[in-house]
Amino acid sequence: MKKVYLFAGMLLGVTLSAQQPVTPGPAVTQSRTFNKSKVMAAHQSADRNTSWWLNYAFAADSIYGNVAELNANYLFPDSSVLGEFGAGNFAPVWIHSIAQTMDPTSFYYNQTSGCTITDADSYSVDSLGIVYAYERNIANPNIVDTLVIKLTHNTTTANWLSSGFIGATAANYNTDTVGFKIPKYDYVNNYATGTTSTSVVKIPLTDADTAVTFYGYKAFGVGNFVVPAGKVVGVSISFLPGYAYAFGDTLETELNSFFFTSYEEQGAGTFVVYNDCNYQSATCDYNVSGIVRSAERYNLNGNSWNGNYIPTYAFTAPYSLEHHLIDWKVSTPPTSVNEVNGTGISLGQNMPNPADNNTAIQYSLKNAGAVSIMITDITGKVVYTSNEGNKAAGNHTVNVNTENMTAGVYFYTLTVDGVSVTNKMTVTH
Question: Final residue of a domain: which of 331, 364, 393?
């Protein structure tokens, strides 16, 4: 539903940040098939009493009669290379990072997946999935490209762009307010901002992930990312090539290329669907996708969207970028720690995992005790130890610098008053 709330907002003292609509860049010609049923089959693995696979694009499409149009576009860290937008039409790649906010309280999720999470529930995300295409044109099988995944939640509001007003240059927008929450953008690192309440995971792409004549589906673990009650979770996804490239190189003929996918829920050329938030009321639906164009990537002067992912609500015709096809596996209560029965000790998965230069190990104690942490490699060699001293009952975190650890598999052991619990982690550089 869309309503004119601007004047009422002034009376109520609500401040809305004005942002301008934007015209999308060139679109990729569709030439691949997509098996939605295959992806949906993966969703059945969750225990629907406590865990759910949620995909807003699929949920909205189901609500609106399964008439969505599938679209795709290149994802690349800068605009120095060219992509093929239509037969023989090469142009600079213009999308450099994508984001999505997932609000599990959406009516759509309850109706299509039976999700029962409310604003009173904390929850965790342990896995994500993405519908994609991936072409490898470099013959060297040792080249490993990477998806850089950053998870964040909006406890630190300075890292998020919240609510807003899209400027009235398109007839459909008029003076509508649009309720949304979306991570802000860090143009230096090319992913979502924030150093607190965040987790970065790197997902390798190899020959096994190639999807050329069809759209593939890739699910992957992201640790167990805990989101407090009443908060939403966001993810940014960026592509990091594992090869050198030069200005003017072409993705389709010379380089490996990655494509993300999006749905236009009500069919080609239709206006974006959004649920009016009425100034962040309890009935808000904050699910939204976002995109970083070249202007935001290079932090160009005078660009009103600098430092932000542009919510897809701001894109004008042909509205092809409405909601990205990204899956979330969520659970409540959170599954960030797994208690070992009878010990009173809960040891969580380190985050991020795989770790690059740093990682955090979460644990909780039913009773106070003397705590130590030890990390060994697969040969049993001790590479890290820390005597944490006496810790009170409750939740705790140990931050570990893994910068000097060789890439590989490790085991971390939590010992409390002589009782030990061990978990596995991976280090990659």
Answer: 331
**Per-residue model confidence as pLDDT tens digits over 183-212:** 999 999 999 998 878 888 888 888 888 999
Question: Which pTM value belongs to this model?
Answer: 0.75
Structural domain total, the chain: 2
Which pLDDT band holds residue 336 (cuts at 50, 70, 90)?
A: very low
CA distance 59 to 142: 38
pLDDT digits (tens, 9 = 90+) for 153-191: 999 889 998 866 555 444 444 445 566 789 999 999 999
Residues spanned by the domain of 126: 6-331
DSSP strands (E only) in 267-392: 288-292, 310-311, 323-324, 326-331, 337-340, 345-348, 358-365, 369-377, 382-391
Let me know the angle formed at the C-alpha of 421 by 416 and 425, rounded to the nearest 5 degrees.
125
Is 130 among the domain residues? yes
Please state, in angstroms and rounded to a whole number, the distance separating the CA atoms of residues 225 and 122.
11
Burial class (CB in 10 A: 0-12, 13-18, 19+), 241: buried
CB 321 within 8 A of CB 289: yes
CATH number of the domain within which 356 lies: 2.60.40.3080
User: Which of 280, 315, 331 delimits the end of a domain?
Assistant: 331
Cβ neighbours for 60, distance < 8 A, ≥ 6 positions apart? 68, 108, 263, 265, 273, 323
413 contacts 347 by C-beta, under 8 angstroms: no
Residues 318 and 390 occupy one common structural domain = no
